[in-house]
Write a structure and sequence with these properties.
PyrdxlP-dep_Trfase, alpha/beta, 7-stranded mixed beta sheet, PyrdxlP-dep_Trfase_small, Aspartate Aminotransferase, domain 1, single chain, pyridoxal phosphate, Aspartate Aminotransferase, domain 2, PyrdxlP-dep_Trfase_major, 3-stranded antiparallel beta sheet, 404 residues
Length: 404
């Protein structure tokens, strides 16, 4: 299991706490929902507030995942068009690597309301942050020259596939300089994976899961809304309208009808687990980063390939080129090889297909994303190394294996 980035992991102590909360709710649901839930969620929100260096606990709303957080942010842009605050053709800017579900939220809310989308090229593999910053700045300047007004920037903190840590502080600074009104950071791989400090990043909205890298069970995440945005005239509402509607986003989010809220309540237990490790969350992050870089270099050397970016541009995940003879020539090949490795060899990793640019000849079109979490052992990566070497030795190619 070298794919912690997809759904995370949950230690036994946190699972136990989860089950205790579930039983408490099931035994006395009225008492739990009416007397316990709000205070316990406030406790979790306070932990998050301190963890991310937010100014005020009211800036933190617990939600189930990034899709919900994106819907909250994008929904208010649709209303802005409907109410005449935004004009037809106003723009959102994002990178081409933006996560598919977030792209769909942009399509469902922003584009459908009359907005225009700027998609900044993400030219993977990468050699430096400057390549990302340069493309972003060029796209902003080009649209400014076209007379478009950029209302919202959507930026990943750590991209999913291919995985790279984005220079969010520099990108937010550029956005502010260019007069973009709102910045939403999609940090699905945020807390527990990279340093997260709201005062330093300076975004209006920042959403992170707590189950990918912070040991909570699915589904628990949060949406940070900067105080100036929280108390402005923005209409921020949870997309599920329930009894708390109109009482502020944090209030609306804590109650969206009858459901299992126990994943929201285990933050204290997750925090206790993290504190067992030297250096706490920072120590775990450093250990994971150092280990995944070491394993990534080992694999690249064994396969005669390359890393997808310099080590300082990765966190607990890294991209490693796969041998070109495997013949990964489409997204479909990547998906099928992912399943093949899992089902036949018991190896769980993600595969990325990197299409060559027009006229470009490249040897490496397939990359593997490996993750490192505290449960991983060196033998996991040796098994991956040997599995790929065996496929190469056996003359495996995607064209032959998946043609039928």
């Amino acid at each position: 299991m070298m794919n912690n980035g997809s759904f995370g992991c949950c230690p036994a102590s946190v699972i136990s706490a989860l089950q205790q909360w579930q039983l408490k709710m099931l035994r006395q649901p009225c008492n739990f929902f009416l007397n316990d839930l709000q205070n316990r969620i406030l406790e979790s929100r306070t932990i998050i507030k301190d963890l991310i260096n937010a100014e005020d606990v009211d800036e933190v709303s617990i939600v189930d995942n990034i899709s919900t957080a994106a819907a909250i942010v994008l929904q208010q842009t649709a209303w802005a068009f409907a109410e005449g605050k935004f004009n037809k053709g106003d723009t959102v800017i994002m990178f081409s690597c933006t996560y598919g579900a977030v792209k769909n939220s942009i399509k469902a809310y922003f584009s459908r309301a009359g907005g225009y989308v700027i998609e900044v090229p993400f030219n993977f593999p990468l050699n430096s942050n400057e390549e990302i910053i340069s493309e972003f700045r060029k796209a902003l300047e080009r649209e400014k020259g076209n007379g478009r007004r950029v209302r919202l920037a959507v930026i990943d903190h750590v991209t999913c596939m291919p995985s790279v840590v984005m220079p969010v502080k520099q990108l937010v600074k550029i956005v502010r300089e260019e007069g973009v009104e709102q910045v939403f950071i999609d940090a699905a791989h945020g807390v527990g994976c990279v340093d997260v400090d709201m005062q330093e990043i300076g975004a209006d909205f920042y959403a992170s899961t707590l189950y990918k890298w912070f040991f909570c069970p699915p589904a628990a995440a949060f949406l940070y809304c900067r105080k100036s945005a929280t108390y402005s005239d923005l209409e921020l509402h949870h997309p599920v309208v329930s009894h708390r509607y109109g009482k502020g986003l944090a209030e609306e989010s804590f109650w969206v009808g009858t459901r299992d809220y126990s994943p929201y309540l285990v933050l204290p237990s997750a925090m206790e687990f993290v504190k067992r490790f030297e250096g706490g969350v920072e120590g775990i992050r450093k250990m994971n980063h150092d280990a995944v870089v070491e394993m990534g270099k080992m694999l690249a050397e064994a396969w005669g390939t390359n890393l997808g970016c310099p080590p300082d541009m990765c966190a607990s995940m890294i991209m490693v080129g796969l041998p070109s003879c495997l013949g990964i020539s489409s997204d479909d090949d990547a998906m099928k090889l992912w399943a093949h490795l899992r089902k036949k060899f018991g190896v769980e990793v993600r595969i990325h297909y990197q299409a060559p640019k027009d006229g470009e000849v490249v040897l490496t079109t397939g990359y593997i994303r490996i993750c490192h979490q505290i449960y991983n052992k060196v033998d996991d990566y040796y098994k991956l190394r040997d599995t790929i070497n065996q496929l190469v030795h056996d003359g495996f190619t995607c064209a032959l294996e998946f043609s039928n």
